[in-house]
Amino acid sequence: MSDFRQSQNEAHPNKTNTLMTGIIFLLILFVTIQIWFLFGALNNALQENLNFAITTALGSLVFAFASFWLLKYLPEPIKRKMKK
Amino acid sequence: MSKDPNSEIPKCKQDFPIEQKEATHVSRREFAKFLTLLSGALAVGNTAIVVKSLAFPEKPLEGEHAICMESEVGDGDSFMFEIEGSKTIPYLLINLGNGEWRAFEQKCTHLSCAVKYRHDLGQIECPCHKGYFNPRTGDVIQGPPPRPLPQLEVVIREGQVFVKAQQT
Q1: Residues of the domain holding A70
Q2: Do B46 and A41 touch (CB under 8 A)?
Q3: What are residue B41's phi and psi, to 5 degrees?
Q4: B139 alpha-carbon distance from chain centroid
Q5: Which of A46, A67, A74 is best to mutate for the B interface (most B CBs within 10 A)?
Q6: Fold for the domain defined by B65-165
Q7: Torsion, CA B137, CA B142, CA B144, CA B150, rounded to 10
Q8: What pLDDT score was predicted for residue B105?
């Protein structure tokens, strides 16, 4: 007998793909912004601009936590689903 | 349906498959996890900058340092010297003429190339990427350097040239 999850997956076969693509796009966006922050912080740290370094560090940490939180929504591998 | 435990490959073997194709294949899950790890590493790096600047602040130059005799550097000439501190920093002493003396850090603020004074142009030049600085203020005139050159105060006493940290 199929459960709710299985029927949902069958009704929307592209869902895993869309989720995966969305998550990867978001992660790439986060990492790009973090690289920008790090570059800016390095440049500003040389000029002893501590406030900028602190702000970018906090922003970078928020993005890192958001990245880890996004992993929660990674879809299960298709192979494992097929076995069930 | 119960899972057959033998049908699942143990994790240790999943990491070291026999087929090369399987070993080089990176799934989207793995890629997403790698990106997350990279994101964490960038956050750690950014935090390290703050920790470093809070825990080990750069000490300003203390006291006066004798550099050379006034007669050793003619009008329009420059003289390179280093000051030992928490780190050794190279400086450039410039005699602009008419008793005007300046001392700047010799590292270009762009990519740390050694700058030199061009008396024919009346500017400090970074030969690497053609950055030009004002020899009186250290301000950027042209080129890629993002900040002015750090400056020291020059004091002439009894024919000898001394430098000290600039009073702000």
Answers
A1: 4-83
A2: yes
A3: -65, -40
A4: 17
A5: A67
A6: Rieske Iron-sulfur Protein (2.102.10)
A7: -10
A8: 92
For position A84, what pLDDT does the model report? 46
> A19-65, pLDDT tens digit by residue?
899 999 999 999 999 999 999 888 776 666 788 899 999 999 999 99
Q: What are the domain boundaries of chain B?
A: 11-55, 65-165
**Neighbouring-strand partners of residue B157:** B160
Chain-chain contact of A71 with B3 (C-beta, under 8 angstroms): no
Q: Which of B36, B52, B146 sits opposite A67 (nearest CB)?
A: B36
Q: How far is A4 from chain B (nearest CA, A)?
A: 17
Encoded tokens for A74: 């990674």
Tell whether B28 is within 8 A of chain A (Cβ): yes
Residue in B29, B42, B58 nearest the CB of A38 = B42
Phi, psi dihedrals of residue A65, rounded to the nearest 5° = -65, -40
Q: How far apart are CA A83 and CA B167, in angstroms?
A: 74
Query: Which among A34, A43, A70 has the least Cβ separation from residue B43?
Result: A34
Residues B43-85: pLDDT tens digits?
A: 999 999 999 888 887 777 778 888 888 888 888 889 998 988 7
H-run or E-run covering B118: strand B116-118
Secondary structure class of B100 (helix, strand, coil) = strand
Q: Which of B1, B49, B112 to mutate to test the interface with A (most CBs of A within 10 A)?
A: B49
Which value does ipTM take for this structure? 0.81
